[in-house]
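Lab meeting notes turned into a lecture example. A postdoc, R.K., suggested we walk through two folding results consecutively so the class can see how the record format repeats. The first protein's sequence and structure tokens come next.
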Amino acid sequence: MLTPDYLFIILIMTANTLVLSVLSLPKYRRKLPKIYWIARSWWWMLALLFGCYLVSSLQNKGGHYPYWWALDSLFVLIGLRGLYEISRLGRLAGKTKLLHKLATQVSALEHLSEKKATEPTLTNITSETKDSAIPLVICSPLDALMVVSLFTLIISLIFLHQLTWAREASGILLFVLFASQFNDIAQYLCGRAFGGRFFQRKLAPKISPNKTIEGALFGTLLSAVLATILGLWLTPFSLLVCFGCAYLLAVTGVIGDLFESAFKRRHDVKDTGTLLAGHGGVLDRIDSLLIGIPLFTVLYWLVL
């Protein structure tokens, strides 16, 4: 009999495959190029995550998990890629190459009409960056904090993975990962539906001009509700605990997103990379995890 986490993986991959298949049709691919690339990137990200998760869960005849390191290795690779993206922005040559890639990707995604408003160009390289032509990993306190946050996240993910397997509650790891990702989608939908209706000002106009207060308020609530449903399925937590954890992950996800936006604004870039078409770099994809995962890990270890 399939366990809840295995069934969840099958359902998510099936749904993503169906959506990608429809978007791959020439008519929809021409009409919705960016949505197609986002769905395709999601398919590969989920396949990699779930593949490593399943390999880590394989038992031998002795009841041991000889491949437990598979998922932890993925977390380490994510951390290394994130560190590379941070260090690249501290080097003139690396940043120049990234800006060229971003401009090329925008053209490929058929968003040329938005280029003037949203796409960084080579003129975005500030005098501060030009003066720092030598390779530097840490260029400011904000960069240093991003590096520390990235290391903390990866260590927390590895520790949480080991802790959940030891307590035979592996579905908790999927719960926290997807609770954080639900938040991005929920904020976007609520921001589009309610943005500007109740509050005249933006949430953080100098850091993230497109993020609305309505999107943050209603998005975190919607995300918490969806994640609570998932938590009741995948975890041994009660309804109250599921909602509390889900809401914590949603709120900290907003903070993590603003933190990464401030990091990008300091370097005058729209995305930290082009590895994930439609999403940006690895840092763009994991920003909602930076604060919530470490907090949840400590909470689960000491309290839950």
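The second example is placed directly after the first for contrast:
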Amino acid sequence: MAMTKWWREVRRRLGVAAAAGLCVASSPGAAALAVDVGHTLAAPGATSARGRSEFAFNLDLARTLARALEDRGFPVRLINEDGLIASLQARPQAASGTDFLISVHHDSVSEHELRPWEWEGQALNYNDDFAGHSLFVSRDNPDTARSILCARIIGARLQRMGFVPTHKNGRRRAYADTQHAVHYYDGLAVLRHARMPAVLFEAGIIKNRDEELLLRDEARIRLMADGIATGLAACLRNGLPADGEAEADARP
């Protein structure tokens, strides 16, 4: 498939960001982080436009993110690396004792928005209308304020590096921060059962044929992981929730 103008521009902007030295490690810190690999081998999540499981995408990014956080001096616990975790509730339980939980996922679209196509002899489906990352927090989490703060800092860092968020999820999920595509998803088990601040990160839309290729690119995965890790380091070491974020703990 020919490279689109959108894809070329993304790659150009990412190259500029890397050349500008935006991948600088922070000083060591004591906070422990849990990185959760979304989905399992038995329930692998969405299938990409070219037939790859969401779990495989999640694992690649989660491993890279864990290394990026360790490079910044954070102790990291990688959850569900083998894809065999027993339940959704077991994920935050496995993160017990850490200071922050981030669950790594890749996004899809609704069934009625998919279009059929064939790839290497497989009958598959795609949607090229939506692309980009998004973030989710829960007001049922005991520290919604810190969750929102870290989500918006991650989102801001990624946009500064040239990554563009999607706003397709605003059709169903209310915004905690519109500019940085941070949404409320109060009932999400991995967020609401966590006893520490928690964010679910959707790295991109694997049903989009161009974005799927970007999401499989190792250099881009490293750059995205660097942006997430930089944002988390800034949040956990220096960030203070604003008044509006603190009020989010008292949901009407």
